[in-house]
Amino acid sequence: MVFVKAGTNKAYYSRYQVKFRRRREGKTDYRQRKRLVCQAKNKYQTPKYRLVVRFTNRQVICQIVYSLIDGDRVFCQASSTELPRYGLKAGLKNYAAAYCTGLLVARRLLQKVGLDETYEGNTEVDGNVVTTEYDKKMYYVDEVDEDKKPFRCLLDVGCRPTTTGCRVFGALKGAADGGLDIPHSEKRFPGYDRDAKEYDADMHRERIMGGHVGEYMEYLDEEDNAKYQEHFASYIANEYEADGLEELYEGVHEAIREDPSASEKKEFSPDKSFKRKAKLTLEERKARVQEKKDAKNAELEADDDDDEE
Question: Fewest CB atoms within 10 A around its CB: which of 250, 251, 257, 302?
């Protein structure tokens, strides 16, 4: 059978409709977004809240977002650049930092809505998934208060692949331990074996406490000290050692729970001493060009005189 290439004619192009701009740019998965945003009509415009987790080259950003017809609104947000306030000054985008950022945004949100005392979350980090069934419905918190239900939001991963052990799930675990009601399971956490269908919570706890970073620090220090000095320069500058990372992260978790509120904004004061150069007029620009031409012609004439001599 002969292979025939399917051709496109004028009718095809006249009916062609381009994708949405953010779909063309590879920024938004609209199939996922529709399911995260659309609310049942009998909920009467009650918004669906999303835990949006994004990673840049330098930080982790966690936001609680809800959607309106004219766009999204950020209800609460936290980033790992705030963690130096709580004692963590290096490694601001690894799995442990993602957990701390998720914990921070959860405690900050519950403080904002007045649920921080009702839902304290999981104060002892153990890596297990906490669930409670109440009134024939599953909640992902320790206990459900009769008067005030927990704050529910859904994880929004964007266009990132949801592989097992991904840092996105570190932020999810931090937010869940912070007291938010986020539907999840242990199947994408570090320590889950898909073949055996078993979950090692201790392995996940070690990842939350930066155990994998400490192991790599010790390995690199023994094998290639020059690379260790370069790779962990910020850790060395802050005097962080591989043995003390667990205590460091425990202190960060306690500090976040004590005061999750955002820092006060600093007033911006521009440098008024700088003055932009005035724009040259047409006559000044022409005179400047003519001056350059005269200087170049004089230089060429001087070179010709030297050659003749």
Answer: 302
Report pLDDT digits (tens) over 49-106. Answer: 999 999 999 999 999 999 998 999 999 999 999 999 999 999 999 999 999 999 999 9
Summarised one tens digit per residue, pLDDT across range 132-150 is 999 899 999 999 998 999 9
Tokens 């570190």 -> residue: 170
Q: How far apart are CA 239 and CA 223, in angstroms?
A: 20
Q: pTM, whole model, 2 decimals?
A: 0.83
Please give the angle made by the CA atoms of 207, 213 and 219, to the nearest 5 degrees.
Answer: 130
The whole-angstrom separation of Cα 127 and Cα 206 is: 9
What does DSSP say about strands 132-134 and 137-139: parallel, antiparallel, or unpaired? antiparallel
Provide CB contacts within 8 A for 34, sequence distance 6+: none
How does DSSP assign 221-246, residue by residue?
A: HHH-HHHHHHHTHHHHHTT--GGGHH
Among all chains, which residue has been given the structure tokens 């090692």?
200
Nearest to 49 by CA among 165, 152, 170, 196: 152
* Spatial CB neighbours of 213, under 8 Å, sequence gap ≥ 6: 91, 94, 96, 242, 245
* Residue 158 backbone class (left: φ over 0; alpha: ψ -120 to 50; beta: rest): left
User: Exposed, middle or buried, 140 (CB in 10 Å: 0-12/13-18/19+)?
Assistant: middle
Distance CA 221, CA 141 (A): 41
180 by Cβ neighbours in 10 Å (0-12 / 13-18 / 19+) ranks as buried
CB-based contacts of 262, cutoff 8 Å, min separation 6: 78, 82, 108
| 3-state SS, residue 78 | strand
